[in-house]
From TrEMBL:
GO-annotated biological processes: UMP salvage; uracil salvage
Reported function: Catalyzes the conversion of uracil and 5-phospho-alpha-D-ribose 1-diphosphate (PRPP) to UMP and diphosphate.
Notes on activation and inhibition: Allosterically activated by GTP.
Residues that coordinate or bind 5-phospho-alpha-D-ribose 1-diphosphate: R81, R106, D133, P134, M135, L136, A137, T138, G139, N140, S141, D202
Domain of life: Bacteria
Signal peptide (from-to): none
Species name: Roseivivax halotolerans
Protein name: Uracil phosphoribosyltransferase
EC supergroup of this enzyme: transferase
Protein backbone atom coordinates (compact mmCIF):
# COMPACT_ATOMS: atom_id res chain seq x y z
CA UNK A 1 0.00 0.00 0.00
CA UNK A 2 1.33 3.48 -0.84
CA UNK A 3 0.93 6.37 1.59
CA UNK A 4 -1.81 8.84 0.75
CA UNK A 5 0.80 11.61 0.71
CA UNK A 6 1.97 10.26 -2.69
CA UNK A 7 0.60 11.59 -5.99
CA UNK A 8 1.67 9.87 -9.20
CA UNK A 9 1.14 12.05 -12.25
CA UNK A 10 -0.22 9.48 -14.66
CA UNK A 11 -0.53 11.87 -17.59
CA UNK A 12 0.19 10.63 -21.13
CA UNK A 13 2.76 13.35 -21.86
CA UNK A 14 4.57 12.74 -18.56
CA UNK A 15 4.67 8.98 -19.09
CA UNK A 16 5.81 9.30 -22.72
CA UNK A 17 8.63 11.67 -21.84
CA UNK A 18 9.69 9.54 -18.88
CA UNK A 19 9.98 6.45 -21.09
CA UNK A 20 12.41 8.28 -23.38
CA UNK A 21 14.40 9.47 -20.35
CA UNK A 22 14.70 5.92 -19.02
CA UNK A 23 16.20 4.58 -22.26
CA UNK A 24 19.94 4.19 -21.89
CA UNK A 25 20.68 5.45 -25.42
CA UNK A 26 18.96 8.82 -24.79
CA UNK A 27 21.53 11.62 -25.13
CA UNK A 28 22.38 14.11 -22.39
CA UNK A 29 20.84 16.95 -24.40
CA UNK A 30 17.53 15.14 -24.91
CA UNK A 31 17.48 13.94 -21.29
CA UNK A 32 17.96 17.50 -20.04
CA UNK A 33 15.30 18.93 -22.34
CA UNK A 34 12.76 16.26 -21.32
CA UNK A 35 13.54 16.82 -17.65
CA UNK A 36 12.78 20.51 -18.14
CA UNK A 37 9.48 19.72 -19.88
CA UNK A 38 8.39 17.05 -17.39
CA UNK A 39 9.29 19.24 -14.42
CA UNK A 40 6.75 21.79 -15.61
CA UNK A 41 4.00 19.19 -15.87
CA UNK A 42 4.85 17.93 -12.37
CA UNK A 43 4.98 21.50 -11.06
CA UNK A 44 1.49 22.08 -12.46
CA UNK A 45 0.25 19.17 -10.32
CA UNK A 46 2.08 20.16 -7.15
CA UNK A 47 0.66 23.69 -7.27
CA UNK A 48 -3.02 22.91 -7.88
CA UNK A 49 -4.00 23.96 -4.34
CA UNK A 50 -1.96 27.16 -4.00
CA UNK A 51 -3.80 29.80 -1.97
CA UNK A 52 -5.65 32.30 -4.13
CA UNK A 53 -7.19 35.71 -3.67
CA UNK A 54 -8.64 38.26 -6.06
CA UNK A 55 -7.67 41.76 -7.11
CA UNK A 56 -9.45 44.46 -9.02
CA UNK A 57 -8.07 44.95 -12.52
CA UNK A 58 -9.18 46.85 -15.59
CA UNK A 59 -9.60 44.84 -18.77
CA UNK A 60 -9.90 46.91 -21.96
CA UNK A 61 -13.68 46.59 -21.49
CA UNK A 62 -14.40 46.99 -17.79
CA UNK A 63 -13.09 46.47 -14.26
CA UNK A 64 -13.25 42.97 -12.81
CA UNK A 65 -12.30 41.04 -9.69
CA UNK A 66 -9.70 38.63 -11.04
CA UNK A 67 -8.02 35.64 -9.37
CA UNK A 68 -4.38 35.93 -8.38
CA UNK A 69 -1.96 34.00 -6.17
CA UNK A 70 -2.13 34.94 -2.51
CA UNK A 71 0.69 35.33 -0.01
CA UNK A 72 4.46 35.51 -0.29
CA UNK A 73 6.36 34.26 -3.30
CA UNK A 74 6.96 30.50 -3.36
CA UNK A 75 10.30 29.05 -2.33
CA UNK A 76 11.88 26.42 -4.60
CA UNK A 77 14.62 24.42 -2.94
CA UNK A 78 17.02 22.38 -5.06
CA UNK A 79 18.66 19.43 -3.37
CA UNK A 80 22.12 19.43 -4.98
CA UNK A 81 23.19 18.50 -7.46
CA UNK A 82 20.52 16.68 -9.42
CA UNK A 83 17.77 18.94 -8.07
CA UNK A 84 19.06 21.69 -10.36
CA UNK A 85 17.76 19.80 -13.39
CA UNK A 86 14.20 19.98 -12.05
CA UNK A 87 14.65 23.50 -10.71
CA UNK A 88 15.28 25.04 -14.15
CA UNK A 89 11.96 23.94 -15.59
CA UNK A 90 9.93 24.77 -12.48
CA UNK A 91 11.46 28.26 -12.40
CA UNK A 92 10.34 28.86 -15.98
CA UNK A 93 6.78 28.14 -14.84
CA UNK A 94 7.05 30.16 -11.60
CA UNK A 95 9.63 32.83 -12.45
CA UNK A 96 8.92 34.95 -9.37
CA UNK A 97 9.76 32.12 -6.95
CA UNK A 98 12.61 32.54 -4.49
CA UNK A 99 15.30 29.87 -4.74
CA UNK A 100 17.37 27.99 -2.20
CA UNK A 101 19.92 25.17 -2.27
CA UNK A 102 20.66 22.30 0.10
CA UNK A 103 23.88 20.32 -0.35
CA UNK A 104 24.30 16.99 1.41
CA UNK A 105 26.85 14.20 1.06
CA UNK A 106 26.88 10.74 2.57
CA UNK A 107 29.44 10.10 5.32
CA UNK A 108 31.21 6.89 4.23
CA UNK A 109 31.49 5.60 7.80
CA UNK A 110 28.13 6.45 9.33
CA UNK A 111 26.28 6.47 5.96
CA UNK A 112 24.36 9.47 7.34
CA UNK A 113 23.78 12.58 5.18
CA UNK A 114 26.05 15.50 6.14
CA UNK A 115 25.25 19.09 5.19
CA UNK A 116 27.90 20.98 3.16
CA UNK A 117 25.77 23.84 1.82
CA UNK A 118 22.57 25.50 2.96
CA UNK A 119 21.22 28.77 1.61
CA UNK A 120 17.49 29.41 1.57
CA UNK A 121 15.22 32.45 1.11
CA UNK A 122 14.18 34.42 4.18
CA UNK A 123 10.65 34.10 5.54
CA UNK A 124 10.24 30.39 4.80
CA UNK A 125 7.58 30.15 7.49
CA UNK A 126 5.26 32.24 5.29
CA UNK A 127 6.02 30.59 1.97
CA UNK A 128 4.83 27.48 0.21
CA UNK A 129 8.12 25.61 -0.12
CA UNK A 130 8.73 23.07 -2.90
CA UNK A 131 11.82 20.89 -2.49
CA UNK A 132 13.00 19.29 -5.73
CA UNK A 133 15.18 16.22 -6.27
CA UNK A 134 14.68 13.86 -9.23
CA UNK A 135 15.17 10.56 -7.40
CA UNK A 136 13.45 9.59 -4.13
CA UNK A 137 15.51 6.45 -3.56
CA UNK A 138 16.38 5.54 0.06
CA UNK A 139 14.85 8.84 1.14
CA UNK A 140 17.80 9.56 3.45
CA UNK A 141 18.94 12.79 1.81
CA UNK A 142 15.41 13.98 1.04
CA UNK A 143 14.31 13.45 4.65
CA UNK A 144 17.46 15.20 5.91
CA UNK A 145 16.89 18.13 3.53
CA UNK A 146 13.34 18.52 4.78
CA UNK A 147 14.55 18.32 8.40
CA UNK A 148 16.81 21.29 7.59
CA UNK A 149 14.01 23.24 5.88
CA UNK A 150 11.78 22.74 8.92
CA UNK A 151 14.61 23.88 11.21
CA UNK A 152 14.83 27.00 9.01
CA UNK A 153 11.13 27.67 9.66
CA UNK A 154 9.33 26.10 6.70
CA UNK A 155 5.92 24.75 7.64
CA UNK A 156 4.23 24.21 4.27
CA UNK A 157 6.56 21.92 2.32
CA UNK A 158 5.96 19.78 -0.77
CA UNK A 159 8.42 17.40 -2.42
CA UNK A 160 8.69 17.07 -6.19
CA UNK A 161 10.60 14.20 -7.79
CA UNK A 162 10.73 12.40 -11.11
CA UNK A 163 10.96 8.81 -9.86
CA UNK A 164 10.31 7.25 -6.47
CA UNK A 165 11.09 3.89 -4.90
CA UNK A 166 8.68 2.35 -2.36
CA UNK A 167 11.43 2.48 0.28
CA UNK A 168 11.89 6.25 -0.16
CA UNK A 169 8.17 6.96 -0.20
CA UNK A 170 7.70 5.00 3.04
CA UNK A 171 10.68 6.68 4.72
CA UNK A 172 9.41 10.13 3.75
CA UNK A 173 5.86 9.38 4.89
CA UNK A 174 7.14 8.15 8.27
CA UNK A 175 9.51 11.07 8.85
CA UNK A 176 7.39 13.83 7.29
CA UNK A 177 3.74 12.77 6.99
CA UNK A 178 2.82 16.43 6.43
CA UNK A 179 4.85 16.63 3.17
CA UNK A 180 2.99 15.63 -0.02
CA UNK A 181 5.16 13.93 -2.64
CA UNK A 182 4.49 14.35 -6.36
CA UNK A 183 6.25 12.03 -8.82
CA UNK A 184 5.98 10.75 -12.39
CA UNK A 185 6.31 7.08 -11.37
CA UNK A 186 6.69 4.71 -8.46
CA UNK A 187 9.19 2.04 -9.51
CA UNK A 188 9.60 -1.51 -8.22
CA UNK A 189 12.41 -1.32 -5.70
CA UNK A 190 15.97 -0.27 -4.84
CA UNK A 191 18.88 -2.50 -5.83
CA UNK A 192 21.78 -3.35 -3.49
CA UNK A 193 23.61 -0.16 -4.54
CA UNK A 194 20.62 2.05 -3.75
CA UNK A 195 19.62 2.62 -7.40
CA UNK A 196 15.95 2.74 -8.32
CA UNK A 197 14.95 -0.28 -10.46
CA UNK A 198 14.10 -0.21 -13.33
CA UNK A 199 14.84 3.51 -12.93
CA UNK A 200 16.97 5.55 -15.29
CA UNK A 201 20.43 5.30 -13.74
CA UNK A 202 22.18 8.18 -12.03
CA UNK A 203 20.03 11.23 -12.71
CA UNK A 204 22.88 13.69 -12.08
CA UNK A 205 25.23 11.87 -14.45
CA UNK A 206 22.58 11.63 -17.12
CA UNK A 207 21.61 15.31 -16.98
CA UNK A 208 25.17 16.67 -16.70
CA UNK A 209 26.95 14.10 -18.90
CA UNK A 210 29.28 12.93 -16.13
CA UNK A 211 30.13 9.36 -15.13
N1 LIG B 1 19.96 8.56 -7.38
C1 LIG B 1 20.00 8.42 -8.73
O1 LIG B 1 20.48 9.30 -9.44
N2 LIG B 1 19.51 7.30 -9.28
C2 LIG B 1 18.98 6.30 -8.55
O2 LIG B 1 18.52 5.31 -9.12
C3 LIG B 1 18.95 6.45 -7.15
C4 LIG B 1 19.44 7.60 -6.59
Amino acid sequence: MTPDTLKIVDHPLVQHKLTIMREKETSTAVFRQLLREISQLLAYEITTDLPMTTKTIDTPLQPMEAPTLDGKKLALISILRAGNGLLDGVLELIPSARVGFVGLYRDEETLEPVQYYFKVPEGLSDRVTIAVDPMLATGNSSVAAIDLLKQAGATNIRFLCLLAAPEGVRRMAEAHPDVPVVTAALDERLNEKGYIVPGLGDAGDRMFGTK
